[in-house]
Amino acid sequence: MIYIYWAFIIMTLSNIVYSQNKYDVKIINNETFISNTENKKEYLFQRVAILKCDSKGDVYVVDYHGTEIRKYTKDGLYLKTIGRVGYGPGEFKSIESLDFDKNDNLIVWDVMSRRISILTKDGKLLSSQNTTGDAQGIYYAWNYPNSRLLTMRFPATNEQNNIFYIYNYDMNKSIANFGHPSVLFNMNDDAFDEVKSCINIYVNKKGDVYATRQYYDGRLFKFESANNWQHKVYKGNEIQYKDYIVDTDKNNLKERVPNSVIYEISKNKMKARLIVRTVSLGLFNYKNKYLVNFVYQGNNKSRKDGGKSELGIELFGFDGNYLGYYVLPKENVSLLSIGSKVLCMDNEGSFYMLDIDANLKIMIVKKLTIDIKEIK
Fold it and tell me: Which residue from 98, 40, 39, 34 is spatially nearest to 67, judged by alpha carbons?
């Protein structure tokens, strides 16, 4: 009986240790890809808004409200500029999203021209389609399986519209729509109009859509295409998430809040503050093994152990199984502000991260190579 009791204790302890150290997550390379401190105009950006990699690893970059696409090798060598400012075919007024179709052609959504353009990777225009009908309200557009587009709208608090809409390339009428904003947000929140566009997504080959709020509350959503777009919610349990705060005290408007980012908003036509401490920086499929959610913890009391601000990743299985939270060492990656964002993952598993200082003077795009291994 005693032997059985000790065997039970040993097995229990071994299971605890295994669950806490199930994966080994390391940064094995960290380099600067683009910086606005360089003098050459091909590398100067106000603030990189979009960065995408094609199947060969070439990198396509668009500036904030950009009117052109700059193409680089994976080593950062400038190749060419695609497009120019204007309303004509192959011209852009404000590129809001960029993606690739199944043939590796560029899909470019110009929000001001209300137009989808398809171009080759060298910039040759293949097609150009202005939106009509119920597509007028879309803001972002991405590639979706079966030669379709997944788009996102910004619904108002008094609308019944969903967030996500699927179209054919003719953009005439939506094929499906799903994801009511009340699923992801509190629509009665004073900050709803500020946060409703802040969503990270990943789409699998089946057409299922995974999403996290950028102002992170610890929830991963899965909208299932084969189940009439019913959604599931998955949650991690290793960090104590701190949602945003709306501060309406006018005496605090200029007060600094350590380890947070502050946005000025309006409430009943009065100034208020949106204080954010936990941010989902990007959601990605890592080598068809895991869903990786980059998380910035800005509140020095946000972790259960009282740790200071940090950058880490949450790992999920594609079935929503939570695989843990792993802090990335500060000596390997140091962020300038909580406003950073992970923009893209290339075909080799490297991540491109935008980093901007609080005064918007320094902008760096870092290339991080992360290794994730299961501990047997």
Answer: 98
53 sits in which H/E element? strand 48-53
What does the DSSP assignment read for 259-310? T-EEEEEEETTEEEEEEE-EEEEEEEEETTTEEEEEEEE--TT-STT---SE
Which residue is associated with the tokens 């895991």?
A: 290
pLDDT in tens, the chain (376 residues): 444 443 433 333 333 332 345 899 988 988 999 887 777 889 888 889 999 999 999 999 999 889 999 999 999 999 999 999 999 999 999 999 999 999 999 999 998 888 999 999 999 999 998 887 666 678 899 999 999 999 998 776 556 789 999 999 888 888 999 999 889 887 777 677 777 778 999 999 999 999 999 888 899 999 999 999 999 999 987 776 766 677 766 666 566 555 555 556 655 556 666 777 788 999 999 999 999 999 987 754 444 444 467 888 999 999 989 999 998 887 666 666 666 889 999 998 999 999 876 566 778 899 999 999 988 7
* Residue 138 exposed, middle or buried by CB count within 10 Å (0-12, 13-18, 19+): buried
Q: For residue 376, give the amino acid letter.
A: K
Beta-strand runs (E) in 121-235: 125-130, 138-144, 148-153, 164-168, 176-178, 199-203, 209-213, 219-223, 231-235
